[in-house]
Amino acid sequence: MTIDHFFDEATATLSYLVADEATRAAAVVDPLMDYDPRSGRTSWASCEAIARVVDDRGLSLRWALDTHLHADHVTGIAFFRDRYGARTVAGRDVGLVQRTFRDLYHLGPDLPVDGSQFDRLVDDGDVLELGTLALRVLHTPGHAPAHLCFQIEDAVFLGDTLFAPDYGTARCDFPGGSAELLYESIRRLYALPDETRLLLGHDYRPGDRPLRYETTVGEQKERNVQLDARTAKADFVARRRRRDAELEMPLLILPAMQVNIRAGQLPAPEENGISYLRIPLNAF
Question: 80, exposed or middle or buried, with CB in 10 Å at 0-12, 13-18, 19+?
């Protein structure tokens, strides 16, 4: 198995390309569409960087995986579906998030909220084939109700559950979030062997330290500043709620979510050929 990481400075997002060396089957995890909130301009520069590696190595891209419907960046899974025929994947409970944000944006009943925009909906314990590798699905709610982690051999792609040990854990104040559920999800990860590799979904680099994209279960249990092996549930929940109450909304949540609930497709162009996003005022 090979794992390549890609980092987006603007959103502190980590995306991954994982491949089976024996068969060249590959999957991309949490890719993003580049979006400039000042100009409203989109591009596929970040996805093209991953695509160059796919093409250079002659990989067969089978899956485009989103750990959850991201609130801080626009998903890039549609790029890989259109370019390579990769099947897009989300959690089986994704409709709960779609329904909430369809109502927020007042999109009406024409937008399905059953997850049908994605090619495959998966749940805890499901396994996706990746050549000779098995990609195991872990349902890890807390940050979002349909949040998933993906485990391949000794590596787990975390999405927004845990960050680097010096930063802590994901927030839980989005619709359907729960600090109690996040605690249980992280405890489940902590039950894995200490040497299990954990691939981060973001790295915010406190103190401007160098980028980190990987940690281990053992390191998180020993050093995570918000939830280590000794942290009681009640203490974590209380601290997480206090911290969430102080946080601003992510810069891109309003543009991003209306694209992400559509599995990365922009709204259909209007008569003038331009696609438009909706910004609900005074909704938060």
Answer: buried
